[in-house]
Write a structure and sequence with these properties.
Blueprint: H1 8-11, E1 65-71, H2 91-100, E2 101-108, H3 115-124, H4 128-131, E3 139-143, E4 149-153, E5 163-164, H5 204-208, E6 213-216, H6 229-234, H7 239-246, H8 253-259, E7 262-265, H9 271-274, E8 277-278, E9 287-288, E10 291-292, E11 306-309, H10 311-314, E12 326-327, E13 330-331, H11 366-378, E14 383-388, H12 398-401, H13 419-441, E15 449-455, E16 460-461, E17 480-483, E18 486-489, E19 508-512, H14 513-521, E20 527-530, E21 536-539, H15 548-558, E22 561-564, E23 569-572, E24 574-579, H16 580-585, E25 599-603, E26 607-610, E27 623-626, E28 631-632, H17 638-641, E29 642-648, E30 656-658, H18 693-701, H19 730-741, H20 746-760, H21 767-800, H22 807-826
Parallel strand pairs: 1-14, 1-15, 2-30, 6-14, 19-26
Antiparallel strand pairs: 2-29, 3-4, 4-5, 6-7, 7-11, 8-9, 10-11, 12-13, 15-29, 16-28, 17-18, 19-27, 20-21, 21-25, 22-23, 24-25
Helix pairs in contact: 11-13, 19-21, 19-22, 20-21, 20-22, 21-22
Length: about 850
């Protein structure tokens, strides 16, 4: 399965949509339920819908609610310089943050930039080397004792072991925790940390403070799959596991709809969980539906907590079971008593007709996610977090996809400014307008609520674009105009077809690594890889980094070429290479050594690379255009790794836009498309990355995690930072710390450039590579020690109000180390 969608069961099946509705009107699917499975309406014996007060929820700064929104690949900067960006075409959302708080356009991802690692970094404030998902795509591989590898998914419930997705896992395969934790950077910790501890859970500070925490579609905090998570959380002989076993559908759509993707973690004694009852599969009378919320490795212990897992058990607690429920004039349920989205459409499981349930990760739109979050808040769940799909793919929204609709027959990958792209942006914009109106009617406003907005990563547009050899038409196309909160279609962009007249000249260049290496370099070294624009290579047998075959494969990977129709040239495929030393610098090596690739290639982001046949022929070329996907991420490129963060609420300054405007940031357009570094992109504003989200939230909420964050509290947006954070030199120290420790800051970028040159070298005795690798290893040790000292002081300043007495000296040392990496990269 390609990397671009989050879950296999969504892209593995056909989507069938029928009917037509107005752009912003309702649309309901009709038909019979899947036979032999759970009921298609909410379980019987529902409690009366009511607002359940969260008595005892204690947060700081007068905050009573938290709403954290995470987009998938939704951009603030423009992909086509003439077309308003994704967020520009959602003015109801963008204006909310700029008018009520601060919208920061100079935020950044870790590496590699993918949904799993990015969301988990945002949730924890830890880079992947410490929270366990430094990520190869949204999956990874693990070395087995025999030197082969098994595939694994990065999406697994928080306490799961590695989710080995091989049809028959190899004997002795890795079973360490999926979210394997390290209190310090594992690559430079001596002795290395044992890979047997689970990362502390992000909901624990909320529930310990008496606050229920609800999530929709957000990585690893709710059930992520059926095969492992249902028997683990509910029990191997539970009714839920029996339902799973009885379902003949290999995709297990009903169980996904019932139990995956939605969860509420409850405070001790919370009525939300304690009072929850429903009729379970195979039973005839109601019984409690809450399950023990087990965190066996949580520092300080975590006992006596419960959680509700899945739409089937959460929905009755937030309104389902009663027909035609409204709240302050906003519809909660339909006449069948099932939850509806913000447009009044019943929320159904993916690929199921009239079967209420979680609609799936890959195409969950804001009308659905935001309805869940509003329902939860109105039912007394004060902390809510939700995930929302992008607008770059055809999301098959019923209101837009019926006969004559703008997305009916539209391609899978949507060019900026195309009709379906604009229509989806309008749909999203309307949903956010309704959401904020509904919350305001509930008294949930920036005066008492923390609002947080981010996206997992940016994208490189692999295809026709302004300034490339193939361009959209007409040349002045802008797709839409934005006036206040209104988005109106204007001159649509049309993307040219290839000579066959059918295939769009818009889509990633899919490359067969095995065939390219065999035909161009005569290199048949056996390896597996994680398919990506930044593929991780796992050389069979797990040889060391200085092994002759490994070194040859690295050089050969760096020398691959292909004809690129978007540049009109034959070009190198590889931009950068990272061996295990450089991957450690980039926070890509976690506590489990079996997961570490032999090396990683960062390709030019037009390319998406996989293993394949060891041949390249005219009928089966090794590089082809795939028009189903055109938005590549994971890779190192300014437009991928530069992101945004929106904050609004008590304690947050109203700075409006902090950073470069939407039309002034890194873009996929132009002759240098995909070739600009993050430090070289010229973005302005406070430089932050995704590790900073969590500590800033915890500071404002008056809470504390049981570990030291890799990020820092963003002092620039605080209305009243404490005395320690306001101390002399602290802000400057925080700024330098970002450039030192971020994967894509000045230090990481410089060392990646240095590592690439050394890896591609072929000096006598491999002297250049070996010498450079030693220098980089030394820099990594120095960086981790200094970064540890800095973040320790910044953490103590934020959460203990302890003065940072050595701020100026630490800043000097930080600048020296960053300068050393830059000096090395310059070749002087």
């Amino acid at each position: 399965m390609p990397q671009h969608k989050r879950r296999r069961w969504i892209t593995g099946k056909a989507v069938v949509i029928s009917g037509c509705a107005s752009l912003l009107g309702g649309f309901a699917l009709a038909g019979s339920a899947t036979p032999g499975l759970a009921a298609t309406t909410a379980p019987a014996a529902h409690p009366a819908f009511r607002v359940i007060a969260s008595n005892g929820c204690q947060l700081g700064n007068g905050i009573k609610h938290v709403v954290q929104l995470t987009f998938d690949n939704v951009h603030f900067f423009r992909d086509n310089p003439n077309v308003p960006s994704d967020l520009e075409m959602m003015p109801n959302l963008l204006n909310f943050f700029e008018n009520n708080g601060t919208f920061m356009s100079n935020s950044h991802t870790p590496l590699i930039a993918h949904t799993a690692i990015d969301i988990l970094t945002s949730l924890t404030g830890l880079y992947g080397d410490r929270q366990g998902m430094p990520g190869m795509n949204n999956a990874f591989r693990t070395f087995n004792p025999d030197g082969t590898t098994d595939p694994a998914s990065a999406f697994a419930y928080w306490t799961d072991p590695i989710f080995d997705t091989a049809s028959t896992p190899t004997p002795g395969h890795d079973t360490n925790p999926s979210m394997v934790y390290s209190p310090t950077p594992p690559a430079t910790t001596s002795p290395p940390p044992a890979p047997n501890t689970i990362t502390p859970a992000p909901w624990a500070p909320y529930t310990r403070a008496g606050c229920d925490a609800g999530y929709v579609g957000t990585a690893n905090v709710e059930l992520e799959n059926t095969a492992v998570d249902i028997p683990k959380v509910f029990g191997p002989n539970s009714p839920e596991a029996q339902q799973l076993a009885a379902d003949p559908d290999r995709f297990k759509d009903a169980e996904v709809a019932d139990y995956v993707g939605v969860a509420v973690h409850c405070a001790q004694g919370s009525g939300f969980c304690a009072n929850a009852q429903g009729v379970k599969f195979g039973q005839t009378s109601p019984s409690p539906t809450a399950s023990p919320d087990l965190l066996p490795n949580e520092p300080g212990g975590y006992n006596g907590f419960q959680g509700l897992f899945g739409h089937r058990y959460v929905a009755p607690q937030i309104g389902a079971g009663q027909p035609d429920v409204t709240h302050n004039g906003f519809q909660v349920t339909n006449d069948a008593g099932n939850l509806v989205d913000l447009n009044g459409n019943q929320i159904n499981g993916a690929f199921l007709t009239n079967y209420p349930g979680f609609p799936g990760f890959s195409s969950i739109n804001p009308s659905q996610t935001l309805a869940y979050l509003a329902d939860m808040q109105e039912a007394g769940v004060p902390m809510t977090g939700g995930y929302i799909s992008d607008i770059h793919g055809n999301e098959h929204i019923p209101a837009l996809s019926g006969t004559g609709g703008p997305c009916n027959g539209a391609p899978s990958a949507l060019g900026p400014g195309s009709p379906c792209y604009v229509a989806q942006a309008q749909y999203y914009n309307q949903a956010f307008g309704t959401f904020f109106q509904r919350l305001a009617a509930d008294g949930i406003t920036p005066q008492n609520t923390m609002f947080v907005l981010s996206s997992d990563e940016g994208d490189h547009v692999a295809g026709a674009n302004v300034g490339r050899a193939i361009q959209p038409t007409p040349s002045n196309c802008d797709g839409a105009t934005v006036n206040g909160d209104t988005v109106s279609p204007d001159v649509y962009c049309t993307y040219p077809t290839q000579p066959d007249g059918k295939t769009l000249s818009f889509g990633e260049l899919s490359g067969n690594l095995t065939g390219l290496l065999a035909t161009q370099k005569n290199d048949t070294t056996p390896f597996t890889a994680v398919s990506d624009s930044a593929p991780g290579f796992y050389v069979t047998g797990e040889p060391g980094p200085n092994d002759a075959a490994v070194r040859t494969l690295e050089r050969d990977a760096g020398g691959l070429t292909a004809a690129n129709p978007y540049t009109g040239t034959t070009q190198p495929i590889t931009n950068y290479l990272a061996d295990q030393t450089e991957m450690a610098i980039l926070h890509m090596v976690n506590a489990d050594p079996a997961r570490t690739p032999t090396f990683t290639m960062f390709a030019r982001p037009d390319y998406f690379l996989s293993t394949g046949a060891p041949t390249c022929t005219t009928t089966a070329p090794c590089v082809t255009q795939n028009s189903s996907f055109a938005y590549n991420h994971g890779d190192y490129a300014a437009e991928i790794d530069t992101n945004y963060l929106g904050l609004a609420g008590p304690g947050v300054k109203n700075l409006g836009l902090d950073g470069s405007a939407a039309n002034a940031g890194p873009s996929s357009a132009g002759a240098d498309s995909g070739q600009i570094t993050v430090p070289g992109s010229g973005t302005t504003g406070t430089w932050v990355d995704e590790t900073d989200i969590r500590p800033t939230m915890m500071y404002l909420l008056g809470l504390k995690d049981d570990y030291e964050h890799d990020g820092r509290v963003i002092t620039q947006v605080l209305t009243h930072p404490n005395n320690a954070l306001s101390g002399p030199g602290v802000a400057a120290l925080g700024d330098c710390y970002k450039q030192l420790n971020s994967s894509v800051g000045e230090f990481g970028t410089s060392t990646l450039q240095v590592a690439t040159k050394a890896i591609e070298s072929n000096s006598p005795g491999d002297r250049q590579y070996l010498a450079t690798d030693r220098v980089l290893a030394g820099l990594n040790i120095g960086r981790d020690r200094l970064a540890g000292a800095i973040k320790g002081d910044l953490e103590a300043a934020a959460f203990q109000n302890a003065p940072v007495r050595g701020a100026f000296g630490l800043t000097v040392a930080c600048n020296v180390l960053v300068g050393a990496a830059q000096h090395l990269a310059s070749g002087h």
